[in-house]
Specification:
The structure holds two protein chains of two kinds. Chain A is of the alpha+beta class. Helices cover about 45% and strands about 20% of the residues of chain A. Chain A contains 25 helices and 23 strands. The two termini of chain A are about 50 Å apart. Chain B is α/β, with parallel strands linked by helices. In chain B, the strands form two sheets. Chain B has a three-stranded parallel sheet, with helices on one face. Chain B has a two-stranded parallel sheet with strand order 2-4. The chains are: A alpha+beta, B alpha/beta.
Chain lengths: ~750, ~100
C-alpha cells in the first residue's frame, strides 16, 4: 500500500480517537468514574501516539507521551481526576487535535501553549502522587520514558543530577532482577509492518537476555501462510530497568501480541531451564548498522545511547521529585495488574460494529444517479398514463411497483449520507472551553440528541454558523460569574445544544441561561446604525431579529472572540443557504434560545405540485397543514390589501402566492383558487392561495443558486416528470414577505446582484 | 555457486526479507521442492521473523524428505538475527569441505 494512503487512514483514525478522547474526558468531567471510560481515554491517546510514532511525527508523539503518562496516573488511581485535572486534560486534548491537524495539513501550532500544557501535565503526573508508602525510593517508581522518541526538548528538560545521587539511593545494582517474558505475536503484528525481530532486538538492549523460540505451532511448508505468525518466544531477561521498560518495548505492538511478563525468582539466564535457551550475544552492533532500516528503526539506532541517558535523566528527575514531595508511587505490582486488566478490556472494546470507509464522491455519484432514476421513473409513468386511455393496464401496476422501489432505493441511499451530528457537537465543546477561558467565564456545555442523523452536507456546513453562535452565546449571552451570582444564578453558565427531528426536518436549538437580549441596547444600536427610524414601533420579536442585520453588534468593545459585527448575519445566511431557518426567542434575565430548523437532506423533498398564474410550483409537503377550498363567505377584507380567511372560527391571513412572487399584478379571486394552510417556522399559520393543485410527488432538488442565482421566495428548483422545470417555494420567505406585501428589499437586492 | 551435486539447487536470498518478501520466499521454496537446496544468505541485510519462519518450515520439510537443506553462505546480519530470535541454524550450516 502507498504510504500516503496509510497515513491518510491514520489521520482518519486519529479523528475518531480524538472524538473518543474528548467524549471520554467529558464523561469523566461529569463524574463518571468507570474504569472503562478511563481506559477508553488512555487508549485513544495511546493509539494516536503509536501511529504517530510509526510515521515519525515527533511533536505529536512527544506530546501524546506526556499526556499518556498523566492519564496512566489516573488509570492507576494515583491521580484523582477532579475538575482541575480534567481542565488541563481537556486542553491537552485540544492541543493534541491541533498537533494532529498540523501534522496532516502542515501549519504550525502554538508552541508556547503546548509547552505550558506539557509542564502542567508533568506536574500532575509527578507532583500529585499519593502519600508515601515506603521510605526507600527505588528505580522503577515512575514510568521511565524509555520509549519516548528522541528530540524531546519539551518533554525532558535538563535536570541537574549526578550519578552519585542515585548511587546512594540504589546501592545494589549488581544483582539485577530477572524477568520471564512470554511473547506471542499475532499475525496482525506483521501485517502492520512491525516485526518480532525488531521488538526482540530492542528487548535485548535492556539487559542480558536468553531466548527460546517456540516453533511447535509451525505447520508444514506447503500448508503454511507465509504472512501468519507461528513463532512465539520465551525470554528471560536480566535487567535493572524495570518492567515498565520492558512493556514500553512492546508498546506499539501491545494489541497485536500476547505478552506475559513475570518477575522470576532466580535468574535462568545461563540456560539451566528445561527449555533450551539460547543466550543472545550482547554485541548486536552488526544489526544496528543494517542499512535500509525504516525511519523508526534508524531513530532507534540513533537514540540508543540517548535512550539510556534519557531514562537515567528521567529516573533522576523522578528521584528529585520524590525527594521534593517526599511522596512515592504505589507498588509496581498493583500497577501491573491494572495494566494487564486494561489490556484485556482494550481488546474487547476494539471489536466494534463493522463499517467501511467510502469515498464521499462515490456516494454522491450514486445519489445523483438515483435522483435521475427517480425523475426518469416519473417521466415514464407520466407518459404511460397519458397514452393509456383505459388506465388499467398491467404496465400501470408495474410502474407503481417501480415507483415504490425507486423510492426505497432513494431512501436507503440517503441513509448512507446521513451522519450523526455528534462530531460537530463535540467540536463545539472545545470552542466553549476556549471562549470561556478567554472571557474568564465558567461555562458548561450540555448537548442532547447527538445521535440525531442528518445529511453529511448539512453537517459539514453546520459547524461554522454553530461556532459563531456558540461564541456569541458565551461572549454576549452569558454574564460574568460575579454578575450571575448577583442575579441569584449559578456562577457557572449553561449552554445547551440540542438536536432533534421534527416533522421531517432537523431542529437544532442553542439555549443559554444568560441575561437575554438587551432589547433597549439593540434598538438604540439599530437607530445609531440607521437600520431603523428612531420612532419605529417594533415588536419584541422584531427587535430581537435586528441582530441578524449585517454589521450589527451590541458588544461595547470589540473582543477577539466576537463583536466585529460579522456574526449573526453570516449565521443567518449560511443557515438559509442550507434551506434552513433561524429564530430567536429571548427572555430578559433568563437567556436566549436560538432555534435552527434545517432540512434533513438537500437532495429530495416531498412536495405538492401546484399551479400559480400558469406557473408550476412545488410546495414542500412538510410545511402544509391542510388544503381547503375557500368559500366567498369565509373571506374577509382587512385593511387596504390584506385579506383573512376564517377557518373553523379562527382567522388566518390569506396570502396570494402569485401576487407575492409578482407573477400577476392584481390579487386573484380567492374563490377560484385553493388555499394551502401552512405553518411557518416562526409560528403562526398562513393560508397560501394557489390556483390549482396538480398532485403530490417526490421531487429531486436541483439547486437554483448553483445553477442560476438566488431568487427571493424560491428555495430551489426541480425537474418534473414531463421534463419541465418547476420552482420549489420557500414557504417561510413567502410568509415573511406577506407581512410587508413584497419580499424583503435586502433579498430583492441580493437577487438583482 | 557451483553445485556439488547435480540435483542441488541454490536459492539466493534477497537483501531485505521483510513482510513483502515472505510470500515470495515461500513460493520460491515450494518451487524447489524435491531437490537438495543450498541457501545463499550472503546478501541478507535484514530479515524479519516471517521469513525465518518460512525458512525453518522449509528446513523441516526438506528434512522429512531426507534431502539436504543447508545455508551455504550467510551474512553477519543473518546470523545475528537468527541468534537474536533464538533460532538455531548451526545444524543447517554448510560444513566447510
Amino acid at each position: 500500500m502507498d504510504m500516503n494512503e496509510i497515513k491518510e487512514i491514520f489521520f482518519q483514525e486519529c479523528e475518531e480517537q480524538l472524538a473518543e478522547l474528548e467524549s471520554g474526558l467529558l464523561k469523566l468531567n461529569d463524574g463518571d468514574r468507570d474504569p472503562e471510560t478511563v481506559n477508553a481515554v488512555f487508549r485513544a491517546v495511546h493509539s494516536i501516539k503509536g501511529g504517530a510514532g510509526a510515521f515519525g511525527l515527533d511533536d505529536l508523539v512527544s506530546f501524546a507521551h506526556v499526556f499518556e503518562t498523566t492519564l496512566d496516573c489516573v488509570r492507576s488511581n494515583r491521580l484523582e481526576p477532579n475538575q482541575d485535572v480534567l481542565k488541563v486534560m481537556l486542553k491537552s486534548a485540544d492541543v493534541l487535535a491541533d498537533l494532529t491537524n498540523a501534522a496532516r495539513d502542515g501549519g504550525s501550532v502554538d508552541q508556547a501553549r503546548s509547552r505550558q500544557l506539557i509542564k502542567e501535565l508533568e506536574a500532575l503526573a509527578s507532583g500529585e502522587l499519593p502519600q508515601a508508602t515506603a521510605a526507600e525510593p527505588t528505580f522503577k517508581a515512575a514510568p521511565t520514558p524509555v520509549a519516548a522518541p528522541p528530540v524531546n526538548e519539551e518533554g525532558f528538560q535538563p535536570v541537574a543530577f549526578s550519578f552519585e545521587d542515585f548511587e546512594a539511593d540504589e546501592p545494589a545494582v549488581i544483582e539485577a532482577p530477572c524477568y520471564e517474558i512470554v511473547f506471542r505475536p499475532k499475525s496482525e503484528l506483521y501485517a502492520k509492518g512491525n516485526d518480532a525481530t525488531l521488538l526482540l532486538r530492542d528487548l535485548s538492549r535492556l539487559g542480558e537476555m536468553s531466548i527460546h523460540c517456540d516453533m511447535d505451532g509451525m505447520p508444514p511448508l506447503d500448508r503454511m501462510n507465509p504472512e501468519a505468525a507461528y513463532f512465539s518466544w520465551k525470554i528471560s531477561l536480566k535487567t535493572d530497568k524495570g518492567e515498565e521498560a520492558i512493556r514500553s518495548v512492546f508498546e506499539f505492538a501491545e494489541w497485536d501480541c500476547d505478552l506475559d511478563i513475570a518477575l522470576a525468582g532466580g535468574c535462568a539466564v545461563d540456560a539451566s531451564e528445561e527449555l533450551p535457551m539460547q543466550p543472545v550475544p550482547f554485541d548486536l552492533s552488526m544489526l544496528d548498522e543494517a542499512p535500509a532500516g525504516s525511519a523508526e528503526e534508524e531513530e532507534q539506532f540513533a537514540s540508543r545511547d540517548r535512550d539510556a541517558a534519557v531514562s537515567a535523566a528521567g529516573t533522576a528527575s523522578n528521584v528529585l521529585q520524590m525527594a521534593q514531595s517526599s511522596t512515592r508511587a504505589p507498588a509496581e505490582a498493583q500497577r501491573n495488574t491494572t495494566a494487564a486488566a486494561s489490556a484485556a478490556a482494550q481488546q474487547a472494546a476494539s471489536a466494534a460494529t463493522p463499517t467501511i470507509r467510502v469515498d464521499l464522491d462515490r456516494v454522491d455519484r450514486l445519489i445523483n444517479l438515483v435522483g435521475e432514476l427517480v425523475i426518469n421513473q416519473a417521466m415514464l409513468s407520466q407518459s404511460v398514463i397519458e397514452n393509456d386511455t383505459n388506465g388499467t393496464s398491467s404496465i400501470n401496476m408495474g410502474l407503481e411497483e417501480l415507483q415504490q422501489l425507486t423510492r426505497e432505493i432513494q431512501d436507503s441511499v440517503m441513509a448512507i449520507r446521513a451522519q450523526p451530528v455528534k462530531p460537530v457537537f463535540q467540536r463545539m465543546s472545545r470552542i466553549v472551553r476556549e471562549i470561556a477561558d478567554m472571557t474568564g467565564k465558567s461555562v458548561r456545555l450540555v448537548t442532547e440528541g447527538e445521535n440525531t442523523e442528518v445529511d453529511k452536507t448539512v453537517i459539514d456546513k453546520l459547524a461554522e454558523p454553530l461556532t459563531h453562535m456558540i461564541r456569541n452565546a458565551v461572549d454576549h449571552g452569558l454574564e460574568t460569574p460575579e454578575k450571575r451570582l448577583a442575579a441569584g444564578k449559578n456562577a457557572e453558565g449553561t449552554v445547551r445544544l440540542t438536536a432533534k427531528h421534527r416533522s421531517g426536518r432537523i431542529v437544532i436549538e442553542l439555549a443559554d441561561d444568560g441575561a437575554g437580549i438587551n432589547r433597549e441596547k439593540v434598538r438604540q444600536k439599530a437607530i445609531d446604525n440607521d437600520l431603523i427610524a428612531a420612532d419605529a414601533n417594533l415588536s419584541d420579536e422584531e427587535v430581537d431579529n435586528l441582530i441578524f442585520h449585517a454589521g450589527f453588534s451590541t458588544a461595547d468593545k470589540i473582543s477577539d472572540i466576537s463583536g466585529r459585527g460579522v456574526g449573526m448575519d453570516v449565521v443567518k445566511r449560511s443557515i438559509q443557504a442550507l434551506g434552513g431557518r433561524i429564530n430567536i426567542s429571548s427572555k430578559p434575565g433568563q437567556g436566549s434560545i436560538f432555534t435552527m430548523s434545517l432540512p434533513l437532506t438537500l437532495a429530495v423533498l416531498d412536495g405538492m405540485v401546484v399551479t400559480v398564474a400558469n406557473q408550476t410550483l412545488v410546495v414542500p409537503l412538510t410545511a402544509i397543514v391542510e388544503t381547503l377550498q375557500p368559500e366567498a363567505a369565509a373571506i374577509h377584507s382587512f385593511g387596504a390589501s390584506q385579506r383573512l380567511i376564517s377557518i373553523r372560527n379562527s382567522f388566518c391571513p390569506l396570502v396570494d402566492v402569485g401576487r407575492i412572487l409578482n407573477f400577476r399584478a392584481t390579487q386573484a379571486n380567492p374563490v377560484e383558487g385553493v388555499a394551502l394552510l401552512v405553518e411557518s417556522e416562526g409560528g403562526g399559520q398562513r393560508a397560501l392561495m394557489v390556483d390549482a393543485i396538480q398532485g403530490q410527488r417526490q421531487v429531486v432538488i436541483k439547486s437554483l443558486e448553483a445553477n442560476y442565482t438566488h431568487v427571493p421566495g424560491i428555495a430551489a428548483a426541480t425537474i418534473l416528470g414531463d421534463g419541465r422545470v418547476a420552482l420549489i417555494l420557500d414557504v417561510d420567505a413567502i410568509v415573511a414577505a406577506s407581512r410587508g406585501q413584497t419580499l424583503k428589499p435586502e433579498m430583492s437586492l441580493a437577487a438583482a446582484g | 555457486m557451483a553445485s556439488k551435486k547435480t540435483a542441488q539447487k541454490t536459492l539466493r536470498l534477497a537483501p531485505v526479507l521483510d513482510l513483502n518478501e515472505a510470500t515470495a520466499l515461500h513460493e520460491k521454496l515450494l518451487a524447489l521442492k524435491g531437490s537438495a537446496v543450498a541457501i545463499d544468505a550472503s546478501a541478507v541485510e535484514r530479515i524479519g521473523a516471517l521469513c525465518v519462519q518460512v525458512l525453518i518450515a522449509g528446513a523441516r520439510n526438506w528434512e522429512e524428505q531426507q534431502l539436504s537443506f543447508t545455508f551455504a553462505k550467510v551474512s553477519d546480519a543473518f546470523v545475528k538475527t537468527t541468534q537474536l530470535i533464538g533460532v538455531d541454524i548451526d545444524p543447517l550450516m554448510a560444513k566447510e569441505i
